[in-house]
Amino acid sequence: MRYHIGVDGQQYEVEIADGDQGARVKVDHQEVGVDLKLVNAPSLYSLLVSDHSHELLVEEREWGYAVFIDTELYEVRVQTDRALRLERVKERGGAPSAGETLIKAPMPGMVVAVEVEPGAVVARGKGLVILEAMKMENEIRAPRAGTVKRIAVTAGQTVSNSDVLVVIE
Question: Is the whole-model pTM more than 0.90?
Answer without folding.
Answer: no
